[in-house]
Structure formats: structure tokens, C-alpha cells
Here is the input.
Amino acid sequence: MLTIREHQPLAPLTTFGIGGPARYLALVEHESDIPEALTWAAERELPVFILGGGSNLLIRDTGFNGLVLQIALRGITEGVKGVNSQLTAAAGEPWDAFVDYAVTRNLAGIECLAGIPGLVGGTPVQNVGAYGQEVAETITAVRAFDRTTSCFTTLTAQDCHFAYRASLFNRPAAQGGEPGRYIVTAVTFQLTPNGAPSLRYADLQRRFANQPQPTLNEVATAVREIRRSKGMLLVPGDPDCRSAGSFFKNPIVASETIDRIATAVDIEASTIPHWAATDNQIKLPAAWLLERAGFTKGFIDGAAGISSRHTLALINRGGATFADIERLQNHIIATVRERFGITLEREPVLIG
Here is the structure.
């Protein structure tokens, strides 16, 4: 029987620790809870928000005046297809524990995504990625409840239209997405038994230089250590962890933009870090832009600030409100736009 509670605090359910309460909240432990909860909300003309691990979320101080569905579906099943092994994880499985589950079975493909907070169900929505891997490389299917047809369905990786930090699930409708239509209940990953770990990222290449090929577990452990050194691993009592991780997306811009930036900061274009994207475009590190716009590690703006270990992590220094974070966010965006002509995009989802 689905239980719906009133006036539930949401801030403790997020890594930012910010935001007002939910008017109603329901814990979803069975797939059948979803249509029941949606019907209940529809009868009362209430908006619905799907809450996972709360790690990529920024909630307004007014909270959410509707029904929040907190996903708590659990379970992992194994299957084999060809030479690759498949793991299907329920949406409420903690992501980092799922990475461990795969690594301990010597299944390669997500080892560089260790230490990322949140739940499995959130990974296809944002196409979670880090240290040279992203989930789009291994996801083969996403099971979800379709709010348009009121039926459960399975989407293929192609159906999900994955791109950098984007998918069918979070891309704006104007860009071909369908945000809000699907509620993810399980994700299937195709991994490689006894596969070699990914060492594409410079930090990992340096860590294992001149050494034998590391194991999947060694790479996952190294990733967690690197994340911790940057304040990007959730550690109780660590003030740098009161954040939503990377707050700004790395912007993708036209290749010629790099010349304008070089002129703005009076350096050689060749020294500006960037990566090739698509269609004569490049990806720039947002952290580099912030630092050269004056927003360095440890920057303080009242109760809000920037992590002392990671330029891209805006933090709640203690007692911060949504308004505090929004003020700092807008200050950063305006300054970077004025100096470089680039408009940064917020990565966390905004609710309320």
C-alpha cells in the first residue's frame, strides 16, 4: 500500500542540503507504486517530481508544491549476451555500490565512474560521465514508465539519444527531448568480462604511468581517491561535499572561439586546454574559464562559495539558501559571459 506523507523536508535528501519541503512525498518501492501515485496526483491536479539520490539537484527555498516520488526500487540481475555480460539494476540502487558490484565481478566499462553519488536511475537521464567514461557507452536498455501512454516500456540506447550530459530524458522539448515523460525504473548495462580498464583520462594515466596494467578495482580505487582530493567524494563532515558536484557544464563552442579567448586573456591559443567535439566545435573546461574570471578555489560569497578543492563545485558553506547559491551562480555566469562571450549552463536540476 502506497503511503503519502505531507510537508516532508527535502533538503536532507539532497547533497546540497538546501531547499524547502515537499507538500507531499511518497516512497516508491515497487513499480506498481508509480501509476498509483500518478493517479493520486492527477486527481488533485498536483505536479509530480521524481527524486533519486538528490546529488544533482538544487531546490528552491519554497520547496515543491506537489507530489515528490522518492525512488527506492532495488535489485540487480545478471544475464549474458554474446561475449559481454549484462547487468540490470533497479533505479534505486546506489550507483557507487553498483560500480563495485561490476568491478568485483571483473566486468569492465564503468570503473572510472566510481565514487559518483546518486542512484542508478539518474545515470541515463544526465548521461553521467567522468574520467574518460560515460554511461552511454554501456547502457543497452532503460525500463521506464511512460506517463503519456500510462504503460511501462523499454527504450534502447538509440531511443535515449545520448549526448554530452544529455539524453531524451533531460533535453528540452525544443531540442527534441521529452523531459518529464518517462520515469526510469531499471537500467541494463552491457559490460566486458575481464576487460581492460579505461585509462583515457590524464589523471589516471599519470597515476599508473610506468606500471603494469592496473586491475579494474585499482582504477576504481584511484578514481575515488582523485575525487576525494577534489572534494567530489561524499565524506561525512567534509564541508566541500555540501554541493551538487560540478555546477557548470563544460561549454561546447565553435572552434574559432578559442582565438577570441586567447586575446581576452593575452595568451597563445595553443595553450588553452580544450577537446575536439563535433561539427567544427570544441569543448572547453568550465573550471579554466572560472579561474581566469576570478572565481578560484575557496572563493567565498556569504554562506555560498566554491570548494577549496574543486573550482566547479559551488558549496553550501553552512546555512546557505537557494537564494545564496543563485546569487553566486548568476555572478559567475555574468562575469564569464562578459569576459569570454560564453554563457555557462548550470548542471544540477532546478526544482520549485
Remarks:
- Residues 16 and 201 are 27 Å apart (CA to CA).
